[in-house]
Amino acid sequence: MLVTGVARQLGGRLVRRIQRDPEVDRVIGVDVVRPGHRLGAADFVQADIRQPAIAKVLAEFGVDTVVHMDVTGTPLGSGGGRTSVKETNVIGTMQLLGACQKSPTVKRLVVKSSTSVYGSAPRDPAVFTETTPPKSLPSGGFAKDAVEVEGYVRGFARRRPDVAVCVLRFANILGPSADSPLAEYFSLPVLPTVLGYDPRLQFVHEDDVIDVLRIAAGEARRGTLNSGTFNVAGEGVLLLSQCSRRLGRPTVPVLLPAVRWVGTALRTVGVTDFSPEQIRLLTHGRVVSTTEMRETLGYEPKYSTVETFADFARSRGPGLLPPDALARAVDRVADRVATGATTPSNAE
């Protein structure tokens, strides 16, 4: 089995977890830089998936299963920026798929994707299923990368129908070691929000991400070659206002026309993918159905959306305001607004 993107914490965890599976004979980890964490007994190959040399790696080790983890919204460490991320996501995927297409030994491909492919628009359905088309395709950032990656994967599946292809669309991944644009956003001392909007958000815990990837990658050896696309998310939703209260971080509402300026300002402080698509998520939100994940893959997440966010919040420490006090203050303001709205009608 070959796993890309192992220099990141999530990829490294997957490699270590897969090695405990008695049915896995050998694991090869690939990344452009040497990981700063241990990979257990896995073989590490320092290679750039954007280069044709990745085909030699597949041939040398006779790889039968490929887990493509190197699709992400943040640069690795301090090196590179948005351009480097996009090249790895898109060009790297193209080269990897080209290598898989030529390899006679590859029988299964698992790709880490994102629910961001659905976009976020004001007239979106309440819940996206895997077959729901987006109202508006993402125009930039990681979301656009994910759309392009999935397009290349579909083309590969048509050219190699003998290969079982599984695409996992993860909701926003959070946890103690989460590395994503949304995790960076929630780590800000003050959260900019869009005035007048309180979007619904879904999260998936990094532990559940590892388990789902392991199940999808192991199906080939169990003889259950389920191919297709699956949404992966924890049960339930949270409003952005609830997230800010649980973090103890105040919000600063910004008028919608000023969101581009906000995105530019956040990029200057290191939030690398605070693109228009990310802003649309924090405006309109997004919720997906996980029925296929439960019924076809047979996976029940250990963490709900609320539990995932609670674990993430604990890892980030206290915010500027005590969460309980902030929640009580918001509730009091809401009660006063509601009372003020009903007083005139009562007086009449």
Low-confidence stretches: 220-224, 341-348
Number of helices: 12
Biggest β-sheet description = 7 strands, parallel
Computed Rg:
21 Å
What are the secondary-structure elements, in order, as H or E?
EHEEHEHEHEEHEEEHEEHEHHHHH
Report the helical percentage. 40-55%
First-last Cα distance: 73 Å
- What's the number of extended β-strand segments? 13
Derived structural class: alpha/beta
Strands of the largest sheet, in order across it? 3-2-1-4-5-6-11
How big a fraction of the residues is strand?
5-15%
Shape summary: globular
- Global mean pLDDT: 87
Task: Walk me through this protein's architecture.
The N and C termini lie far apart (73 Å). A 7-stranded parallel β-sheet has the order 3-2-1-4-5-6-11, sandwiched between helices. A two-stranded parallel sheet has the order 7-10. Strands 8-13 form a two-stranded parallel ribbon. The radius of gyration is 21 Å and the shape is globular. α3 links the parallel β4 (65-68) and β5. Helices cover 43% and strands 15% of the residues. α1 (9-18) packs across α6 and α2 crosses α3. By secondary structure, it is an alpha/beta fold. Residues 220-224 and 341-348 have low confidence and may be disordered. The protein is built from 12 helices and 13 strands.
